[in-house]
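Here is a typical protein record:
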Amino acid sequence: MTPSAKRRLSVALIVLLAAAALVRALWPDDENAGKKPQSVPVRVTQAIAQDYPLTFTTMGRVQPSETVTLRARVDGQVEQVLMQEGRPVKAGDVLIRLDAAELKARLTQAEATLARDEAQLANARTEFDRNEKLKEKNYVSDDMLRASRTNVASLSAAVKSARAAVENARLQLSYSVVRAPFEGRIGARLVSPGTAVRVNDTVLAVINRVRPVQVAFAVPEKFLGQLQPLREGRRMPVLITADNDAALRAEGFADFIDNTVDPASGTIQVKATFPNRDDRLTPGALVRVSLALDTLKGAITIPVAALQQDGEKATVYVIDAEQKARLRPVQVSDQRSDIAAIAAGLTAGERVVVDGHLRLTPGATVKVQGAQP
C-alpha cells in the first residue's frame, strides 16, 4: 500500500470515530431516560417581621460605683484588726482599732483644763458682780471695775478655747476606731496588730461599693447622634455578657456620657449601671457590652445562616411555591451573631434556606427536610 493510501485510510478512521462519539453523545440513554433530577435536601425558615434593636457591641471594664482608701487620721499603733479581708461590710462596721491610751490621756488633760478655766470664770464673774455693786456706792474706782470686766471676758475666751480643745481631743480619740463609711466589700488586709501608722499616710483598707457597679466603655464618635438621650438625662438599655462565663448575663442602663471626645482615639466614654444583686460582677473584670442605640420597627429578620456573601453583596436562596430555589440579592441593614435585619429584597413569610447551600444552584428543586422556627 502506498503512503498516500495509508494517509487516506487513517483520516477515514478518525472521521468514523468522531462520528461515533457524536452519535453516542446525542443518542438518549435508555437507562437514564425518563428519570427526574434529584431534589436537593435543605432546611428552611421563614422571614419574620419584628422590632429589631440596633446595638453597638464592644468590650468594657467593671468598676465599683464608689471606692474609698481608708488612711490613718491619727498617729499611733494598730491594736486590733476586726475586718475579714474580701468580705462584705456594712456602713458603720468597726474595721480596725488603734491604741488609744495616749489619746484618752489628752482628752483627760483637756477636760481638766476646761474645768479649771470654768472655775476661774465663775470666780471672776462673782468678783465683777461685787465690784459693780460697790461702784454704785463709789467704793471702787472705774479702773478696778474695768479690770474685773476684762478679766471676765478673758476667762470666757479661755473657757471657749478649753471646750474646743476637749472637742478636738474627743474627735482625735474617735479616729482610733476605723469604721466602714458605706456598705461594700473590703479588700486585702494591709496592716496587722502592732503596725505603726502615720496620719494621712498609712493605708489601712480599701472598700468598694459593688451594689450597684458600673461598666465603663468607649463609643466611637460617629454614634454621638444616637447617644443624644444620655445628654438629655435619659437612660439607654445595656446588656453585658462574658466570654469566659456563659452564665453571666446582666441588664442595666447607660446613665453617663463624658463631656469630651478623646481626640487620640475618636471615642467618648460611656458608663452603665447594674444592680449586681448576685455579686456576679467583679470590679476590674472584662465584659462584652451591647448598647441599644435604636429600634427598627417591623424589620424583616432572618437567621445569619441564611445569608450568602459574594464579595460585598449578600444573597439568600428563597424557596418558591414550586419548591425551587431562587437566588435573590438582599440589602442587610444590620447583623448580629445570630440574626440579620433585611432592608430590601425579602418580605415577611418568605422561606429562605438556612442549611444545604453547598448543593444548591439557582432553579434547583429542593426537598425541605425541616424548618427552623
